[in-house]
């Protein structure tokens, strides 16, 4: 697992700002990291180059990397193939000009009313878009550039501590098949008139298979959803998620999720947080932007007063009028509303309080009004994301670390970070894992929970701990005012096996549950070895290669990443090929890893120092081509690679009771065997490993020689850690 520590600090003076880096437009509400300007500039260059090339060739843009028409299976579905059948896949692919009479990217700006969910279970992402759209011009900053004539669109998203640019074409999936493919009986419904059929079934926003805009002829909604799907490898990867993580991907903000019954003072919550939704949007005050809110209904009801369980909604506005408190809430489906008090057409509305008085209108559009007291008694939890403007600076450091064997004490000691603060300053410290959505099927068989404690260096004074609100989330954080000095962050990791309700990799599409991850993990603990092998054998090798490439590219962000262990599975930076022949490239290949960011890029803000496994009681990864790990190497580790120390060799006749070879079935295993660190309780004897290996050498394995090592071996796994720290006010670090 990879952990990252992020630090944000308010810029001190104008002179120091210029020395740090050139700032983009003031108060952008997109977190300003070193590569924000680079991502924007790169995105614009790519759009311009594609536009010029297409005009020269008299062709519209067709995206080789994400071609929905020519490579539909790869673009739509993950490794398991999704529900790839005639009833659950688009019937055709059309360009925007074929769909709309007068297509426009945005009409009167981006609003929450524009968002209508399609067949994809991505309510979490659309709710995130709805809340972000309430901030003036923020969607325009994410949608960097486009040329609708040739059909090229450029977007930026925030992932794993940096900004990534994504380019897509304007090919979109639709429900209706071609007229020629209709049965004669259905053709008769349209009077055997192809033009009539196309107009009624294959044109307009209603024909789109996935998300669409509620405003006819508006195109930004399906295009940004397509770009987000491309970022994560396929549309299926967007099924299920947490809305706050969607807001983070759009803005780089920092999220908290808390239960409503945990709120201490409901009056203070209304005045200091909910009311500032509108205040933050109008005044562009970053310190008040606690605005993106999403929530779900009570867990014990499938549907209550028109509201669905485990479905994400967005709070668009908090309103006080004539002594009453209201919340304007939106369902990303574009339909399905609250039917309780103050719902559309309810008896509470009178001539004394009309919907227009609070900026509301009746209609099945997914937007509804709730009184504050009903809100508190109806919803379970709320997601809140804090946004940052360009007055903040950020420092971030990723590390690959190793967890201890289970069962073990739940202790600190896996990793620590030291932060230096020159001046008193507000800060946000975040500890995070990698975003594994784009390679979820390959992410291992465990769910992880993180927390950390903050100490003054050299003292036993506990300054604060990370805020605990929910378990098994991607990150935890702490907002705090720090005095000048040095601080130590100690991280702690917990884990449990992933439990899934289904026996295969496919989704249960009967509901749209917020928070569930895409797909069912192939290494889910209930799967038998035969089921695992059957599932893996059905995977498309080409798609698998892309998934592994994405996983390794993300892991390469860690400062202590070793590229030599992954060989051809690692994607190289495109820049390495520019103007160089293969002889030169061969010398540089091992120095460049992954997409748009270097895995050793310098942080903008204060650089935290790091100690990994600060006492000699941890196993250490063997940096060897065979990806085999010595289980009993007990020595202190740091950020550098270590040579293997001499290990105790086991007797070839040693019997390891309770261990069975998953390759040949030998029980007990005799002599040396290997435990896969990425599969659930998968052991393989030396004979099988020598004969045919395991997972083509792509998985890291632990070598077990002695009975002592075997006794220690319960659930040794490798994981990546990412810490994060953000601060506000004039700290020169």
TrEMBL record:
The keyword Amino-acid biosynthesis does not apply. Pfam families: Peptidase_C2, ZZ. The active site is at 123, 311, 331. Keywords: Hydrolase, Metal-binding, Protease, Thiol protease, Zinc, Zinc-finger. Gene3D superfamilies: 3.30.60.90, Cysteine proteinases. SMART domains: CysPc (SM00230), ZnF_ZZ (SM00291). Residues 656-709 form the ZZ-type domain. GO terms for molecular function: calcium-dependent cysteine-type endopeptidase activity; zinc ion binding. PROSITE patterns: CALPAIN_CAT, ZF_ZZ_2. GO terms for biological process: proteolysis. Coiled coil: none annotated. Residues 60-388 form the Calpain catalytic domain. Belongs to the peptidase C2 family. This is Cysteine proteinase. It comes from Heliocybe sulcata. The lineage of its organism: Eukaryota, Fungi, Dikarya, Basidiomycota, Agaricomycotina.
